[in-house]
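stage 2 :: seqdesign
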């Protein structure tokens, strides 16, 4: 059976640190890394240009460190370094799948990653390379969701794909705590903000709303989830301006 045709030409995929951790409490789950890498390769073979923003919560959580007394800005910078570990792990696995990859970092660490340069990132994508964006925005107090929205807008992505480990979309409340929580198939950016649904921070949603960038929130645990979303299959929750 022939592979379905892609719906998008260029996408930004956000992978949380929790997604990297899989079923583990800490570190990187190699089975998740393998599955994600194979799916990214398949999507790229369809002709889709893929940028990836990675989180670092499976290694270090700045917010938790702050609660324990660590300076918030310092904790956030430590979290940025954690994202680089995930980025390098993903880069290595993708390269073993035969994908050409470039990792760009928002903080300077030239031995292992290029500095983030928007025009260079776009050129890499045009040449058929996957681009991994590490270290968030390079600024403390900013989440990697915001980094994902920012990079998506900067590179001209057609959609922001937020892959989660815990939820298969956006719900009226936390379905783990509220059994009567209902899942949204579709809603607007304004509704997501007004309802304070919490699946993404308000800065990220606002940035997408201002630039009319659709968001799809879906579960990474669903079979071939990244491929299915890239081909336009309705899974998860779609957030649009309309």
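stage 2 :: out
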């Amino acid at each position: 059976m022939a592979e379905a045709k892609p719906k998008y030409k260029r996408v930004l995929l956000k992978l949380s640190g929790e997604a990297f951790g899989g079923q583990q409490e800490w570190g990187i789950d190699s089975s998740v890394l393998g599955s994600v890498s194979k799916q990214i390769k398949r999507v790229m073979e369809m002709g889709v240009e893929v940028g990836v923003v990675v989180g670092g919560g499976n290694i270090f959580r700045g917010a938790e460190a702050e609660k324990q007394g660590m300076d918030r800005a310092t904790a956030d910078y430590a979290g940025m370094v954690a994202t680089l570990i995930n980025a390098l792990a993903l880069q290595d696995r993708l390269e073993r799948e035969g994908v050409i990859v470039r990792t760009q970092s928002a903080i300077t660490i030239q031995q292992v990653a290029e500095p983030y340069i928007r025009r260079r990132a776009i050129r890499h994508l045009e040449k058929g390379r996957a681009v991994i964006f590490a270290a968030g925005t390079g600024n403390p107090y900013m989440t990697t969701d915001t980094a994902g929205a920012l990079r998506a807008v900067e590179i001209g992505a057609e959609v922001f794909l937020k892959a989660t480990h815990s939820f298969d979309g956006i719900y009226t409340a936390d379905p783990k705590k509220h059994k009567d929580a209902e899942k949204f198939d579709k809603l607007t950016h304004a509704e997501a903000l007004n309802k304070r649904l919490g699946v993404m921070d308000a800065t990220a949603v606002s940035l997408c709303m201002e630039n009319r960038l659709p968001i799809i929130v879906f579960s990474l645990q669903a079979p071939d989830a990244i491929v299915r979303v890239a081909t336009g299959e309705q899974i998860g929750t779609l957030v649009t301006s309309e």
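stage 3 :: structure notes
- The first helix runs from residue 17 to 21.
- The chain has one domain: 10-240.
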